Amino acid sequence: MWKCSFVSAASCFLFFFLVTPTIPSIEALCVDLINTTCKQCASKSIVFDYYFCLTSLQAVPVSHVTDVPGLAIIAMELALGNATATISTIENMFSGGAFDPFARQCLLDCLELYSDAVPMLEQAVAAFLEGQFDTANLFMSAVMEAAATCEVGFSEKEGEVTPLTGENYDLFELSDIALCIINLLSLGLPSVTS
């Protein structure tokens, strides 16, 4: 029988630690899953922001213990949170009253676009959960279009700067993350489904 004395306990522990293979934690595997998924999406689109994808998904604690479909849901939930918060931001901008008639009309248009985006995001999540990837894809594409339309509306007047550039960018990118993952899942790519 092999025994460790008190004096050699530390060396026995060290031996056990070095000889016993380390098993990667679930969290480490999920962080790698996030990285792999974001890389795959970035390789498929020139407008996809890999670092935005990585930091957005990693910032949500549950993303560290989920699978690829879970990452799609997280991206859609983040987009929903963004759209909802942006509606409040626009409403607060109106109460400030510091906008000329053109900018005010653009903000009204953006308010309508974001107000339409919220139910589209909810419908995208529902369709995704039911396995209707094509329907979810259509809703996410429409949400991306809403963010782009809001941004472009301000550029119709030379020199006009949109006060919603950050919000529009975030909604576009979060929707793009979800859209890419939905497309990867619908194609059944082995590297994201295994």
Automatic annotation (TrEMBL):
InterPro entries for the chain: Invertase/methylesterase_inhib, Pectinesterase_inhib_dom, Pla_a_1-like
Keywords: Disulfide bond, Signal
Record carries keyword NADP: no
Coiled coil: none
Gene Ontology molecular function: enzyme inhibitor activity
Pfam families per the UniProt record, alphabetical: PMEI (PF04043)
GO cellular component terms given for this protein: extracellular region
Signal peptide as annotated in the record: 1-28
Residue intervals of the Pectinesterase inhibitor domain: 29-181
Sequence similarity: Belongs to the PMEI family.
UniProt-recorded name of the protein: Pectinesterase inhibitor domain-containing protein
